[in-house]
Amino acid sequence: MLESVQLLTNQISRMSTDSQQNIHYSPVLEFKSSTFSVPVLVLAGNDVITIEQQLQEKIHQAPEFFKNSPLVFDLQELNKHDLDIDVTELTRVIRKLGLLPIGIRGGVAQQNQQALDLGIPVHSGHIARDGVYAANQSGTGAASTATSSAPPKQQIPEPEPMPEPQTVAAITTMITNPVRSGQRIYASGDLVILAQVSAGAEILAEGNIHVYGSLRGRALAGVQGNTEARIFCSDLQAELISIAGNYKISEDLNTAIFNRPVQIYLQNHTLIIKDI
Amino acid sequence: MARIIVVTSGKGGVGKTTTSAAIAMGLAKKGHKTAVIDFDVGLRNLDLIMGCERRVVYDFVNVINGEASLNQALIRDKNCNQLYILPASQTRDKDALSQEGVGKILDELKRDFKYIVCDSPAGIEKGAHLAMYFADDAFIVTNPEVSSVRDSDRMLGILSSKSRRAEQNEEPIKEYLLLTRYSPERVKLGEMLSVDDVQEILSLHLLGVIPESKSVLNASNSGTPVILDEKSDAGQAYSDVIARYLGEDRPHRFIDDKKGLFGKLFGRK
């Protein structure tokens, strides 16, 4: 099963700053946080040969899409059923098929270490985060053999509990001038607009959108898939509203909610528009 | 300090050239040395409206290409000696204009003139882009109908993001709304957007409302800017616009329906 998730790279950059403590800060570089959409390979079985066969079939359907595509593999389901998998072997197969594994998710300590030894970063999966693995770890960990020859460079960062709101970057973009027809504004965090948004304008944000003027254009919140994002506006006349890809066009909107202050959020894949 | 004014709209046929001619004449009549440039290369019109079409020797493109000096190409207006016209080339297209060339000419004009009025072509392509690029002030000419309003909105977006002032992070272009071809009767019948409707959509400082008027067509045909027709409502409206632009406080006229005799007698609003 393939699904798309966002990879939060501020996590990666934090790790690298830690390991490069003795390098003096130099103005030739800076760390920035950005989000990417990366396919995730969710495994339901641990037979590497079957995985290879089925993966090959998938790739065959869209070779261009998968060619050199980055990939995160997710072992959550396997570990839930106590099925162990040889991460080294799995990585070899993935690479052989032309994909570039860039992360492991939902693995137990042993698997994470194996991945790290292969240069694959560990991403905190949601299950590992809520601690379901604590009980499992000792059992499955003993079964697999660590193949690391190099001395352990660093302890596997224990998947830190990442508070959900942090997935929305803390940067807020503030716009004070009217957003005119044909203009497009993209915010990597929240977007606050203190003026009107004209018909034919487009405002997009990875986080929430606030419009304290008439919203006549298109407003798309949570464009990287954040289903918790909301749109707030003081006068709804929008051509289109969307949260995490769930959209409604003007014609689909009940005219009763027009010209009113409302908030828009997502509930069970349905856009809810409510007075505020 | 010279100011460059662009008269623009996005949409065609709304009255940009009429407005350019009128405001250039209005400013010159007030004693300010003014130049008006036709940026509509290939569709030259301003010379007709200004009534100087038979005196065109060199044009804008000739000056850009160095084939003529600015002084050779500028035509002095026959009604007002403070007003000069730089006509467009009729045989070339917009590609003959370059940002560098336009910038150089405007710099040269700025030394000599108080106001430089740039008559933009319709659209948002090269000609319109270059007309607004160096502007300090923008007169947005809009008709009271939805497509004109939307195109004006689009043009306002371009002014605030693609102009020289925007690119160099200077104080933004001052934008003024000019509502032209306004007919209070038709607004009353619901056939036309009202001043308030347009203001609400564009949220822009209203510099003036020019009523739909026969005098505009007459003025165009005779080659005299309508502002010189002091008896006409459109001419008076343009005079108001100039006065307001220069800082005078004048109440808006021509917005309401003219009261009939019956209305006057009974004080009907």
| Average of per-residue pLDDT values of chain A | 77
Largest sheet of chain A: 6 strands, mixed
> What about the largest sheet of chain B?
8 strands, mixed
Strand order of the largest sheet of chain B: 3-4-2-5-1-6-7-8
Rounded Rg of chain A: 22 Å
Using a beta-carbon cutoff below 8 angstroms, give the protein chain pair with the largest interface and the number of residues from each chain: A-B, 15 and 13 residues
The tally of beta strands of chain B, per DSSP, is 8
Q: Beta-strand level of the residues of chain B, as a percent range?
A: 15-25%
Indicate the structural class of chain A: alpha/beta
| Widest sheet: strand ordering of chain A | 6-8-10-12-15-16
Give the percentage of residues in beta strands of chain A.
25-35%
State the shape of chain B. Answer: globular
* Quaternary assembly: heterodimer
Helix content of chain B: 40-55%
Helix fraction bin of chain A: 10-25%
Individual helix count of chain A:
8
- On the 0-100 scale, what is the average pLDDT of chain B? 93
Distance between the terminal alpha carbons of chain B, to the nearest Å?
A: 45 Å
Please provide the ordered H/E string of secondary-structure elements of chain B.
Answer: EHEHHHEEHEHEHHEHHEHHH
Walkthrough of the structure:
The complex is a heterodimer of chains A (276) and B (269). Chain A is 25% helix and 29% strand. Chain A is built from 8 helices and 16 strands. In chain A, the strands form 3 sheets. Chain A has a 6-stranded mixed beta sheet with strand order 6-8-10-12-15-16, with no helix packed on it. In chain A, strands 1-2-3-4-5 form a 5-stranded mixed beta sheet. In chain A, strand 4, helix 6 and strand 5 form a beta-alpha-beta unit. Chain A is elongated. The model of chain A is unreliable at 3-22 and 126-169 (pLDDT under 50). By secondary structure, chain B is an alpha/beta fold. In chain B, 41% of the residues lie in helices and 16% in strands. Chain B contains 13 helices and 8 strands. Chain B has helices at residues 16-29, 46-49, 60-64, 70-73, 99-112, 126-133, 146-162, 164-167, 184-188, 195-202, 214-222, 233-245, 261-266, and strands at residues 3-8, 34-38, 75-76, 83-86, 115-119, 137-142, 174-182, 205-211. In chain B, 49% of the residues are buried. Chain A binds chain B through residues 177-183, 195-196, 198-201, 214, 216, and chain B through 150-151, 153-154, 156-158, 160-161, 172, 200-201, 203.
